[in-house]
Amino acid sequence: MLKFKNPERVATLETPFWYYDMDLFRSTVDAVVAAASKYDIKVHYSIKANTEKRLVEVIKDRGIGIDCVSGNEVRWSIVNGVEPSGIVFAGVGKSDAEILYAMKVGIGSFNCESLEELEILEAIAAKEGLRANVSLRINPEVDAKTHKFITTGLEMDKFGIPKRFMGKAVEMLKNSPHLDFKGLHFHIGSQITDVENVFTNECRSAKGIIDYFEEQGLKVSTIDLGGGLGIDYHNPDSHAIPEFDLWFKTLRDNLPLRPGQELHVEPGRSIVGQCVSLISRVILVKEGEKKNFVILDTGMNDLLRPALYGAYHKIENLDGAGRELRLYDIAGPICESADVLAEDRVLPETRRGDLIAIRSAGAYGSVMSSGYNMRTPAYAVFSD
Ligand code: LLP
Asked: Which of 2, 148, 176, 311 could form a disulfide with 357 if both were Cys (CB 3.0 to 4.6 A apart)?
């Protein structure tokens, strides 16, 4: 059950809000930094998971770089003090303006996702008299065994350069006077829980691709294996800090590096997911024909994941101690049938005004929210 650091104060706040457990966040960052140093891995935080300024500041201060997927994410990182050289920029559709901005500030590397983009990068750099570091994101054709909406490394997915174009990419890079080839990038998907098997497969596929580029005479200095480490949505308290050690060990054990090669990763969810809960109050409990509905003052407008992916989030009634258990669907106020946060959940008998915690909402929560139905968005509250 979620415990607030200062419960009396929190009880007076208007809902809904995102409650940031900053102690847990700092411990999670400590854990990823310790594991990364043990296995000699460079971390770029995937800022798309959560762009909150206070988090970015802690991450930057610990020497973690940033993985971006838009010009505005690059800009936001820089505004918050991140060194441009510590930024990598992926994405299948980078606009000319985004590319130009990132080139001018001198980001660490563009993670280029197509031959078409490679051509655009060279053309913009040539026109502006700039140089850019480029890594190639190759589609490794590895199944992440996760939800199909968050699988990215299969032949059918839009991400990365298809393997059959690798030869062409080598040729283009050799003829791109304004681009400096840095290395290779892979990302197979998100919320990966079968850590050892899936990441071993990723390493195997990556190894063959790295060998190919080196045989073609391109030096692969950085190998970025992306993000994807899953979190335990069912047990946020007993499994609050994800298994960074197991992930990094799996990568190290299965991907032998040549001298001068660096291993990089880009975790998002695993760094921020468990540190935030969405706090809401029950507007009313509605008796339906077949079901009983707890209607909250938050819904898919704040947390889209259940509606979009059928994602599971643990839901707790913080005022329900000692009451009998009942079965409910937990829904939001939005005018959409998909606005259900959980179906058939057992909760203590729930009443109007009860405080509800929706757990593990730190990753892809606030960043995916919308202003639908003109609802006032949830705001951030920090435990400290
Ligand atoms: N690197 C790249 C290139 C990515 O596309 C992503 C996530 C990451 C790193 C970070 O992956 P993570 O460590 O967070 O798994 N909205 C979905 C997740 C989308 C993930 C997008 N890419 C969700 O709510 O589950």
From this structure: 2
- The verdict on the CB of residue 187 being under 6 Å from ligand 1 is yes
pLDDT tens-digit readout, 56-98:
999 999 999 999 999 999 999 999 999 999 999 999 999 999 9
Distance 19 CA to ligand 1 centre (A): 22
Tell whether pTM > 0.85.
yes
Is residue 44 lining ligand 1, measured as CB closer than 6 Å?
no
| Full domain range(s) for residue 131 | 90-265
**Residue 311 lies inside a defined structural domain of this protein:** yes
Domain count, the chain: 2
Is the residue at 106 inside a domain?
yes
From ligand 1's centre to the CA of 269, what distance in Å?
A: 7
- In this predicted structure, the answer to whether residue 47 has a pLDDT above a threshold of 80 is yes
CB 55 within 8 A of CB 25: yes
